Amino acid sequence: MKLQAYNSAQSILEQYRAGTVIGLGETGFSVVRYLLSRGLDVTVLDSRDQPPKAGQLAEQFPRVQTHFGEFDFANLNEAGLIIASPGVALSEPVLRQALQAGAHIIGDIELFIEENQAPLIAITGSNGKSTVTTLVGEMLKSADKNPLVAGNIGAPVLDALTDSAEYDIAVLELSSFQLETTTRMPAQSAAILNVSADHMDRYDSMGDYLLAKARILRGAEVAVLPRHDEQLKQISQTNRMLSFALDEPANDAEFGVKRVSNSRWLMKGSERLVKLRDIQLIGLHNVKNVLAAFALVDFLHLPLKKLVKAVKCFMGLPHRMQTVAVAGEVSWVNDSKATNIGATVTALRNLECEVVWIAGGQGKGADFKGLAEAISPRIRLLILLGEDAAKIEQALTGLVAIKRVSSMAAAVELAGSIATPGCIVLLSPACASFDMYRNFEHRGDDFSTCVENHIQRGAA
């Protein structure tokens, strides 16, 4: 669905005196605060009868008009400006009708971009974007910068403007949902880390999903992309490009890995950055994430020594290839954030030891045959649980030994009975968590608790 362009001679807020916010979660509430602080009248719509922020809205802004429950186009008739929350698809009939009537539909990122005056680094990808965004923020802090790290991570980005936060560079993690309602991205550097099947319950095809991700490059000065992804190269032809991969870089526009004497180094062209063994993160895919982070901050010409210090200290994020315990030379790794096939394939392919793999949950319409490319003799057993366990088993039968269980506790107990010294027990679900848990964090915490209980029983 093509969004309306606005008059670039005027700011968005100069063209409208009122706005309608669709969705009253964290993002929607931040938009309400921002629009009110800029003097606009605000109406809020949410298809839920009791949106998460309804009570807080009524308490803090009782004069804001609200319409909760099934969407009604009549509630949009007076609104030329609509700000849709990321969770609301542009294919929603009421939004399609509004667009046909001439409404201007945007998201919170578009509002931020218009007012932001600081340099901008933008990051998207099916997997790894939170890790890279956080690491870039840590690298900037180490180099005496004061970054705003926001977007699809941490506090909603508009809160920084509403609260007049001080920052000298903005680092935004952006989901495909956020990019759908963003018409331009005037970033100094913008990265698409990778693209693999995800959110196929929202997009008609991988092509549509890729196009949503590609919006991050519109207006970006430098595109940071995986070196060997021809699909992404084709959509970045208008940008100057820096690339990253695990092979040896050929020039200063390439970041990669090279063996020098007895050590492997992360490199920018012929320049050594940091020894691979000094990186704390697990998995070769995280080496790519570190290379991407170096490429994203390259335009700032910051002291290498300070950037390397941040990289060496960075332990990664919870629920992303996080080692939660080591006992009897068995490592227990929580990768609950792997909510799609691509993330799990990446995790499995980048481990070089034997693995007992725990997976399953809600597949979001994914084709689990895609997991087959990560199957190797190193996987001793696949333990499945959750709503789509049977679908995963059907897709991988004959390729790997499989057992199904009914709970995380049972999965951990079975894994513990199979794992031998030097082995990794990996929770990498390839699925969303909502069939059994509130979110992926809740799932990862349950895994950690079950592991702790298992180890304590073994020590008793």
Q: What is the CATH-assigned architecture of the largest domain? A: 3-Layer(aba) Sandwich
Shape: globular
The largest beta-sheet arranges its strands as 7-8-6-9-10-11-12-13-14
Work out the strand percent. Answer: 15-25%
The chain-level structural class is alpha/beta
Count structural domains: 3
Compute the average pLDDT. Answer: 92
The largest pleated sheet is described as:
9 strands, mixed
List the helices and strands and how they pair.
Blueprint: H1 12-15, E1 18-22, H2 26-37, E2 41-46, H3 54-60, E3 65-68, E4 81-84, H4 93-100, E5 104-106, H5 108-115, E6 120-124, H6 129-142, E7 147-151, H7 158-162, E8 169-173, H8 176-180, E9 189-192, H9 206-214, E10 222-226, H10 230-235, E11 240-244, E12 254-260, E13 263-268, E14 271-275, H11 284-296, H12 304-313, E15 322-327, E16 330-334, H13 341-349, E17 355-359, E18 379-384, H14 389-396, E19 402-404, H15 408-418, E20 424-427, H16 440-459
Parallel strand pairs: 1-2, 1-4, 2-3, 4-5, 6-8, 6-9, 7-8, 9-10, 10-11, 11-12, 16-20, 17-18, 17-20, 18-19
Antiparallel strand pairs: 12-13, 13-14, 15-16
Helix pairs in contact: 6-11, 6-12, 15-16
